[in-house]
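Ticket #4471: structure output looks truncated?

Reporter: J.K.
Steps to reproduce: submitted the chain below (261 residues) through the standard prediction queue, then opened the result file.
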Amino acid sequence: MKAIKVLVTCLCSLALSSPLYAQDIVRLDKATLSGLGLEGGPNAEGIMRYGKTLYDGDKFNVSVAAGNGPDNIEVIEVESFPVQEFCYLINGSATFIGKDGQTATFNTGDFFIIPLGWGGTMITQGNSLYQVLLVISDERGEAIPGAFPTMVNPTYMSGLGLDVSSFPPAGEDAESNRKTIWDGSELEITIMDVISNSGDFTDMSEEFVYVLNGSATLTQLGGEPQTFYTGDFFVVPEGWDGNWTVEGNHLYRELIAVPAN
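Returned output as attached by the reporter:
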């Protein structure tokens, strides 16, 4: 129980510190994503804890957390995970063992979800530090009974197996495909693609975006354009107005996290 209190304290301090909310698009700082400039150090028990908030908005926050125990491994017993976390593993590995023995391991480069209410053993390892990018909703929802940490399927991220849909902002006939990966009580995770197009958006809802293919140029009303390419992370703040222009080899594709309805 003591270990999970340490973990929760670390995450909560990240989620509530150093607000960087801005009205324009927020590009996630690549230096922080590379592990530079994180704040923290060893606690009284010798456990390493580092972190930094990258975005603190109306509906969710985005942060980088890093840590480790002795010998580059930490074992945390979790009675009930206090939030839903959408995670991108920057360095190291995370193994989850459920109370029923179910096991999953995630490695550097994986996207995964830790469900609200999950219980079991979490084992993190890293070459010096385990490091992860976290998206956490500001609102608490209801736990999903029996839910287990789930990886975003690389097949879907590759654009295969998505469901055919349309993209009305670009016209009802605009070719688009999408797949909802996780429909939780706090965050919804979706992969979508769309043909190259340009359109104006008004009063957008907050979105965390990872570009999987192509480029997106976003220009706030009265502002300067910002262009994001494959591998870039950015956040669209709540209430944003402006133009999206997306391009790609036929299709632009992105991974999105939004607050649950």
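Triage note (M.O.): checked the attachment and the full token line is present. The longest strand covers residues 240-259.
Status: closed, working as intended.
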